[in-house]
Amino acid sequence: MLMQQTKQHATTKGAVLIEGLSVIFRRRGLVNPVLESIHLQIQPGEFVCLLGPSGCGKSTLLNVIAGFIKPTEGYVMVDHMPITSPGADRGFVFQQYSLLPWKTTFENVEFGLKIRGMAKAERAALVNDYLNRVGLYKHRNSYPSQLSGGMQQRASIVRALVNSPSVLLMDEPFAALDAQTRHMMQELLLDIWSDLNTTVIFVTHDIEEALFLGDRICVMGVQPGRIKAEIGNTLQRPRHFDDTLSNEFTQLHRQVFELIREETLKSMEQSMEVA
Ligand SMILES: Nc1ncnc2c1ncn2[C@@H]1O[C@H](COP(=O)(O)OP(=O)(O)OP(=O)(O)O)[C@@H](O)[C@H]1O
Ligand SMILES: [Mg+2]
């Protein structure tokens, strides 16, 4: 397993630019403005966390970047190319376990490379290398139902990374895991990220998780969702779990907590008005 969490080398791919992005969902005459005037610029190799109350549009924003949802206004560019559809330059890791149940771990990870036409021997070498990095090599012939939740998410992460994406999009990937496994997954993710220098956009509800992982925390406001505040994370890398006990961590935590609390209260007031 990789043990470094410091940046090994500068990266040049994975720049994300979001300008004037709005998403309005319309259904049966009802208009639901979900995202409004989002502006966000992300540097290549940066680790950005999106935090915000439920329903503020975090997943919608991630889905627009992935190319699954088209914006009503504005645009997203990755490495100066406008996003109009999903592409191999953006890997996605979902909250719910999303491996194909009829394929083994190896076959799940290999799938994207096979579709892209990579030769069998080259595929096998690459997939085995990634499975080894995350401690899944000996489980390569197991089916998802034979893996724990943490193992399935490790397989999902390498399934995305094996395609060498410029940007890794993660939607609460560790939310369903127990606390101990979640901590291990966070450390593993930092190790992989520091080695590969992929840009990461990570959605979470968990302030500690965002502070432990991110270079920058974007706190989103409630409907219509927008970026309410951006907090640069001053915690040094490499990070260890002891750092979560430091004064610096506690201060950052309080700052983010207050921002989220305001938005959660607003969100509750809005839902009471509707009711
Ligand atoms: N495909 C869709 N069609 C219509 N409305 C949608 C669609 N996807 C999301 N919405 C609406 O957009 C709003 C934001 O949803 P979204 O899932 O992006 O929020 P979220 O911040 O990820 O919430 P959570 O923290 O609970 O995951 C909600 O009101 C939701 O009902
Ligand atoms: Mg969501």
TrEMBL record:
Domain ABC transporter: 18-247
Gene Ontology molecular function, alphabetical: ATP binding; ATP hydrolysis activity
Alphabetized UniProt keyword annotations: ATP-binding, Nucleotide-binding, Transport
InterPro entries: AAA+_ATPase (IPR003593), ABC_transporter-like_ATP-bd (IPR003439), ABC_transporter-like_CS (IPR017871), ABC_transporter_ATP-bind (IPR050166), P-loop_NTPase (IPR027417)
GO CC term, one of those recorded: plasma membrane
Signal peptide extent: none
Major localization listed first in the record, in broad terms: membrane
Membrane topology classification: Peripheral membrane protein
Compartments (UniProt record): Cell inner membrane
Family label: Belongs to the ABC transporter superfamily. Nitrate/nitrite/cyanate uptake transporter (NitT) (TC 3.A.1.16) family.
Protein name as annotated: ABC transporter ATP-binding protein
Species of the source: Leptolyngbya sp. NK1-12
